[in-house]
Amino acid sequence: MLLLCLFLLPCMMTGHLVIYIMVTIFVTISYAPPKIPVHYIASGISANSSALASHPLGPFWNLRLEDSALWNQLQHIWDRQNNPILKGNRTGMQRRPKGQSLKEIEDECLSDCLSNKCSVPRVNDFNSMPEQIRAFIKSMHCREYPFLINQPGICQRKNDSSGVGSPTLLIAIKSQVGNFENRQAIRETWGRSGLVRGDFNKKGGLVQTVFLLGRQDSSTGPHPDLSNLLGLENEKYGDILQWDFRDTFFNLTLKDLLLWRWLQQYCPTAAFIFKGDDDVFLRTDALLDYLQKRVEEHKIWRTYTNETVMNLFVGDVISNAMPNREPSMKYYIPESFYKGVYPPYAGGGGMVYSGSLALRLQEVSERVRLFPIDDVYLGMCLNRLGLSPIHHPGFLTFDLPGTDRNNPCAYRSVLLVHKRNPKEMLTLWKQLQNLPAQC
Ligand SMILES: *[C@@H]1O[C@H](CO)[C@@H](O)[C@H](O)[C@H]1NC(C)=O
Ligand SMILES: *[C@@H]1O[C@H](CO)[C@@H](O)[C@H](O)[C@H]1NC(C)=O
Ligand SMILES: *[C@@H]1O[C@H](CO)[C@@H](O)[C@H](O)[C@H]1NC(C)=O
Ligand SMILES: *[C@@H]1O[C@H](CO)[C@@H](O)[C@H](O)[C@H]1NC(C)=O
Ligand SMILES: *[C@@H]1O[C@H](CO)[C@@H](O)[C@H](O)[C@H]1NC(C)=O
Fold first, then answer.
1. DSSP letter (8 states) at residue 307
2. pLDDT in tens, 303-334
3. What's the Cα-to-Cα distance from 218 to each of 104, 139, 150, 224, 266, rounded to whole Å?
4. Residue 409 sits in which domain range?
5. What is the model's pTM?
6. Which ligand lies nearest the alpha carbon of 54?
7. Is residue 48 part of a domain?
8. Domain total for the chain?
9. What is the pLDDT of residues 228-255, one digit of tens each?
10. 42 alpha carbon to ligand 4 midpoint, in Å?
């Protein structure tokens, strides 16, 4: 019996092995990689160059290229153009100067950017798309718009008591020309520029607020001409940044891009940036405390690693969101424009990130196609940097539960609430100034 087993065992094992090999061979033979019709050649490389290995016809690193969606297609082109392996040794592997990639690719467009002569990317159902996405597609190659109002010196201005030039926290608020009341309420409450004390930690920091505006006058729609009033407001407060593009929902991403460029040029040493809407309430003092803690942690961390850049990005993080496919909705994104899940992003109303990260976002944004939803675009740029936004439960973009809204004590653990009109901002501000001790 034992002997029989000893003889049978090797036979069975060999049998299994033969079956395995046959299956493997069969699978290998029957598998054909997907074919793409054109042999893509990255710019600047001759197909004959013997110095370079030819790259495969099948896109093995991205098997699921969504070539039926415009954004994915355009992004794929940039990804290949910016891929150091595909690009080869054209420049002796030198790092190219910053900003050149975008310039090279779209030079011919940029000069015609504002005159609307540049060719519109082709997309099949263009004419059946809603007006706002069509307007976006027509101008999505264009990201340079001139200033109408600039504040070149604002980050060096505050130099009195503290002696420090650059702000600890730059508050950048997306506003619209007509929202005078929101801006004023913010200036009088949580967005007051100057030295601000922390909530617990009395150290606080220097706060500087700016408002980000596009153009809204008779040339961009049925708008009353408020430019003189805006000019007066800016004369008094000197905190308006305005660029010459139509201020629409799908153009909001431009405000982020242009803010980053402005930061790079005029305010590169700001420690942190809060970017938000003009209908939120921010507990600036509590945020300063929070940021102070992060800075201290980073200092400790730095002694163990060589990580000198602080990559902080905090907000109300939304993961695995899908594009909205309901054509009547504000956020509608057609399938022929974008396919896929959105990367994790900080949504609605406000988020805070470190100044050094803002400069990195500026750089990487030159390799990411414009996307009409600004929060998602920020998520895409972070994703490219290999970073994720950090979720903080104090960012209440969907507000407090109804019963807590009028209870000042409930705001103790809050950093941001959405949404509050100017009157509510003033009331809440007053209540939070004298919080009862039992809170
Ligand atoms: C490749 O080399 C052949 C023969 O030398 C030449 O005819 C052809 O034009 C070259 N192709 C490219 C893309 O340079
Ligand atoms: C790239 O080109 C430079 C100069 O032509 C050469 O010295 C270098 O070895 C090349 N590098 C690679 C990785 O081929
Ligand atoms: C700010 O203050 C410092 C020290 O008090 C001084 O050295 C510096 O020149 C000032 N900067 C500006 C722009 O006024
Ligand atoms: C964005 O602004 C540009 C420049 O004013 C304009 O041509 C374009 O139509 C705007 N896009 C949207 C989606 O409104
Ligand atoms: C940090 O950088 C220094 C000098 O550049 C190097 O000697 C050291 O090994 C680095 N330490 C770590 C943890 O990478």
1. -
2. 888 888 899 999 999 999 999 999 999 999 99
3. 35, 20, 22, 7, 31
4. 147-433
5. 0.77
6. 1
7. no
8. 1
9. 999 999 999 999 999 999 999 999 999 9
10. 31
